[in-house]
Amino acid sequence: MTQRATNQTTKISSFVLLVVVVTLLLSFFALVVAINAYSSDPVVAGWLIMIGFVGVALSAYVLLQVRRRVRSLSIEIPPVTTTIECTKCGFKNVREFQRGDFIFKEADTCQKCNSKTMITAIYREVKEGQKERSRI
Amino acid sequence: MFTSLMALQSKISQNPLGDNPISWILNLLFYVVFIVFLFYGQRIQLYVMLREVEGSLFKLKYIKEEGRKIAIETIKEIGKPQTDPVTRVDRFLEYFMITPQNLDPAGIVWKLEHVLDVRDVRLKDEVKLMAPSADETQVNNLENTLEAAMALNYIYKVIRHFYLLGKKTLSLYTIMQIQMLLPLIMREAEAYASALKAFAYGQPIGDGAGAIVAGRLMHGHETKKIPKDCVVATVPIEGRTAFVIKAEGPGGNVGKPGDAIKQVIDENEGKISMMIMIDAAAKLEGEEVGEVADGVGAAIGGPGVDQFKIEESVLEYHIPVNAVIIKEDIGDAVSPLRKEIFDSIDKAIERVKQVLLERTKEGDKVIIAGIGNTIGVGQ
Fold first, then answer.
1. Does the beta-carbon distance from A80 to B336 stay under 8 Å?
2. Residue spans per domain, chain A
């Protein structure tokens, strides 16, 4: 029953591209200035190098993120299980949900004692990682 | 640090590249950026927000399209229509309801009930036309599937409206209000998306917790149909006579518990010692899913018609109303039943019995009403 449907969308805003290009240019300028200023003032050069690298890294990151707008969208359909229980011996059979199942529906005969069985539970289990945990 | 920054500024202004025009351009660029942010900061913020809304809008559009696709596929699979149902489905998704005028609120509940009845009949007829081979249970499930698709279509349209309005007017406040609500709206849309398959397959949902409690109590006892779309069973519990009511399953249906409870009270000439209502209720963040709590009052959601009718009926005979609720969030309420909620059914039954023992005497007549959508739950 677990299904995953995907779709792709592509769109890059010219505004974002402009901002990235301007930041990239400014960062390169900062690096050039830093190289020239290194001999005369190493402290300032250090700051400029830092600004330059941060600028280049940031614009590269934003550019990559924007390019990743070719991204996949999905609707998660969780697996649902049906529990069938024997009304006489209590034997339990858990299987994947099938269309037409409903709680209190009479199902096939019991594998153990041939008595009537009934659907007693239909539910989905949320994985441990997806559960919300609050310490407050 | 401040000294270093000052030194940096003076270094830039002293032209570290001598009379190189590059340093002039660099200086100029710094000033331009400063001025741009000074005057256009808000507009830049607006564009950032618009992009955020746009991203969510893409996702909503995809979810809405998927909802429509699932609805059409299910209709074709179950209903086996002679003609293509696409046009009818598209018309259904645009269906609307005008609520009664409330300038003079006297009698508005009956007007609202009438409009809701007309809507219900109309939607059911539409579904029957779309899916002629579907039985009553499947018609109810298909109606629920289409209503989930309808809700997704509406959410998408509202968000698109505010997005385009914000873009057109460049009003920060128009776009800001939708951007701030987006996380909650997206949660609701994702919940409806997971509800689509649950409705299409007829799986029990979190909202049906109350119906499962009633189903457990009445299972094995003779049931009788009562208006509208409800069933009642007379069940002996702890020496009391309990009239257990739920919507008729296993199709997606909430029934009209207001009418059902009124009928049971009238049939017993008001000689009912107590009523207990069991329903799924919205949990607050931080509360555990499936937590059981009890209190007083009519535990029932929806447009309010049934709550009004129940309150009127119990007031007439001064019947105390107790409520047992099973806590869950909106996502759990419309998506396939979670194990935690299913496990809380036993706890809710225990709580019902506890209330009965504490607040009634042996031989008393009580009403136990399991409220909620009974999809995937028989009796």
1. yes
2. 3-75, 78-130
